[in-house]
Write a structure and sequence with these properties.
Elements (H helix, E strand, L loop, with lengths): L1 H7 L6 E2 L3 H4 L8 E6 L6 E10 L2 E8 L4 E4 L4 H7 L3 E7 L3
Length: 95
């Protein structure tokens, strides 16, 4: 309960899915990516980690399609566009 209370007092910023392409240069390898959603009762629908492949930003995540942890074949902006209920991302960096 205490953790939830502390989290509810924080301000979180969501990068709109239409702006991720312009902001992706600021996302670093290993950053946690949380997918904001418009689904009723949920704030975040999926999570993964940022990975760079050939200079492009991809997602390391537990894929329901592949049934295993995998790097997305498409870039992060393309992944977002394909998932209609995702409205944007939250990015967290561990130090």
């Amino acid at each position: 309960m205490r953790v939830e209370k502390n989290l509810s007092l924080r301000v979180f910023y969501i990068i709109d899915k239409n702006r991720v392409s312009r902001r992706q240069a600021a996302i670093q390898q290993g950053d946690l990516i949380a997918f904001a959603t418009n689904q009723e009762g949920l704030d975040v629908a999926h999570v993964g980690f940022a990975v760079r492949r050939g200079g492009h930003l991809h997602l390391l995540h537990a894929s329901s399609e592949g049934g295993a942890v995998a790097v997305s074949p498409e870039t992060l902006p393309a992944y977002l566009k394909r998932h209609k209920t995702f409205t944007g991302i939250l990015v967290a960096r561990f130090s």
